[in-house]
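Exercise: predict the fold of this chain.
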Amino acid sequence: MSSSREQIFANIRRGLKRDALQGDALKAVQGRLKEHPSNTIPARSKLPHNEQIQLFIEMVAEASAELIKLDNSSEFPFAVNKFLGENKLTHLVSANSAELSQLDWSVLRDITIERRPAQAGDLVSLTSSFAGIAETGTLMLLSGADSPTTLNFLPDIHLVMLRQSNIVGAYEEAWDKLRSQRAEMPRTVNMITGPSRSADIEQKLQMGAHGPKRLVIFLVAE
């Protein structure tokens, strides 16, 4: 454990007026962390997968995100090209994940596409999503060298590809999916539900207060 991390924990222990755990108490905590016990699972997420997909769609709409249905992933570049054209956008920053890189992006003939972290001033970004969580219409996105977290928050518009097969019912299922497919946790896991918003300013809802003004999810059936 790094010295800075240990110092933070030491400060917390002092605030709680307790020493570091030892013996059976320490083993009990280590066992719980290793087992990853599930918390309460909302009944509304305990559905057959096709109904979880429908619930996800409904919750996405409730969160003010946009959703575009596609039959297969080969349609995705064409759908992105159409969206950019309709919104008069000519520049796109994109993740360079294997899932996106294997698609044919040559259809973006009038669009400049850069595969890099987002910067201030970028208008639209493109990523894929590791999972969709039906109970709240939430996306789970993982950071990495091929998908910097800045893509999720800096641009005004965030375009996301999500496969229906990656939709789960509850948050606990999304974490189980991550643990089963990744040997190590990514540095950052972002949970995104709808576009950014805040009502802290005079009790008025402001879209894009701390991130994208628009979240557009391309839901791919295959």
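Check your answer against the key: The helical segments are 3-16, 23-35, 49-62, 76-86, 98-101, 150-153, 171-181.
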